[in-house]
Fold this sequence. Notes:
Blueprint: H1 26-39, E1 55-57, E2 60-62, E3 68-71, H2 84-96, H3 106-116, H4 121-125, E4 127-131, H5 134-149, E5 153-157, H6 166-169, E6 185-188, H7 198-218, E7 223-228, H8 245-254, E8 258-262, E9 287-290, E10 301-305, H9 307-316, H10 327-342, H11 345-364, E11 370-376, E12 379-387, E13 392-393, H12 395-407, E14 410-411, E15 413-415, E16 421-424, H13 432-448
Parallel strand pairs: 3-14, 5-6, 5-7, 7-8, 8-9
Antiparallel strand pairs: 1-2, 2-3, 4-10, 9-10, 11-12, 12-13, 12-16, 15-16
Helix pairs in contact: 2-10, 3-10, 5-9, 7-8, 11-13
Amino acid sequence: MSSTANTSNLTMVNAFDPEKASGLDPKTQEMVRRREKLLGPAYRLFYQQPVQVVRGSGTRLWNPDGEEYLDAYNNVVPAGHANSRVTAAVHQQMQTLSTHTRYLQDGILDYAEDLLGTMGPLGDTGHVMFTCTGSEANDLALRIAKHHTGHEGIIVTSEAYHGNSELTSGCSPALGSRARLGTWVRQVPAPDSYRIPREQLADLLVEHVREQIADLQRRGQGLAAFIADSVFSSDGIFGEPTDLLAPVAKVVRDAGGLFIADEVQSGFARTGDSFWGYQRHGVQPDIVTMGKPMGNGYPVAGLVARPGVVERFGNDQRYFNTFGGNTVAIAAAQATLDVLRDDDLLTNARTIGQVLRDGIAELSLRYECLGDIRGAGLYVGVEVVSDRDGKVPDQARASAIVNAMRDRRVLISSTGPSANVLKIRPPLVFSSDDADWLLSTLADVMSTTDEG
């Protein structure tokens, strides 16, 4: 793909090209061949030289030869790979009981109460519903929104990713131009703080949302919900400004719709400023969805909704999920939440995230291709450009950096509509030593690649 092409395809960003498998060592070629034969063509591998991992601990991963990698990408394990408290809780609960939510159990109630306690006003009255994955959580949230409002329309940002179910993939333009969006879906441009003056972003986003609401109403579909990830992860990682979502929520509610905060990426202390990404924007959602980091690698997810929002849905349809909220999942979630708080990983995310952004900003003084450094907490985006004045995305250069980092055993990825934004999103236990390793490796990569 060329450096100027709009990839608009989340699954292909930083993907291994099977046509280049002949350049791999024989053992890796055989694994790739078996993988293609057994798993089929829909799966993707990372990096031009795929990585095989057999063990993890904290922020580190190891391959079969004992080579150590720094994981600066994996947000699924905020408490670190193989966290002892989480694995002990899962092991103990698995030895005791693993069953669904149709029996009375203290664990799920204690955790729900604990979780709601992190959400401010929404948590005072909200209800928790458990699923297995973030896709399921978003799917359920959209079903509730449609049922509550009686409308069909969903508004998302232009490169949003909200899941891989039929419903959520239908409102996930990041899956690619060949992936079908629902006829009830409308897109609005992401708040590109690099190319648009920040003081204009809130008004522009509101204007775009209003236009799409009017179009949905004109076609008789109406507005069920606006759903957004508050750091706009797939759109290119825009952590600032934080005055965008509250005015959008007002416009959405005035039109009879719900505001859904997709916290699968930005929740659980990731942003460093607040436990939930939406809290940085000073907005109270109608529904909050969560997943990925919730169980530190164990599949657990869910949503929190205002009582009035879920009441009709609950009365008309009920809800049950065999594995959603099972006793082992709740044990993993509770242990993860305990570690996040006891080890103050919110502060760590804020502190180390700033170290990373400051260090990369220093590098940008020497390397013109590092055009913008942004994000929040331990979610860092670095825009790679071929022309800093013109702010021209450079996908090829970004890919070269990502793969050169991998060759030096530091794992990051890329994102955005042109796949030119370096995505640095490590476990929240990332330390100052880890940050030094990443920054020194990035400095080495920048000094040894073609452009300086």
